[in-house]
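Troubleshooting: if your tokenizer reports a length mismatch, compare your output against this known-good record of 120 residues.
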Amino acid sequence: MSQRHALIIEDDCLVALELEYLLKEQGFATVDIADNPRSALDCALTHPPQLITSDYCIVDGTGPDAVAAIEAKLGPMPVVFVSSHPDVLGQARHGHLVVEKPFLPSHIARACLTLTRMVA
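Known-good structure output:
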């Protein structure tokens, strides 16, 4: 099995580091962190992720816009939106889940497991 890679789109350093730790606990070997849409797209094109976590509000844009740009280039992929604004995300589309901040480690683990089963 190839090593799994994740992309975290988050502009809060502490949240990004916590998500990195939690994703590594879920078996992701490598993680990139981006705090704006352009950086997120660059990271994804350089090292395509098997999973994206994204906040809603990020520097110079929104997480959904960053994810849409990535998916326009790489196709649909599993996404966990981790946001204190779940109401503005609306209904997540197939392959996307929403976890509300503040979150527990089990919320991230459950979302990763659910998405892994969806794409398997």
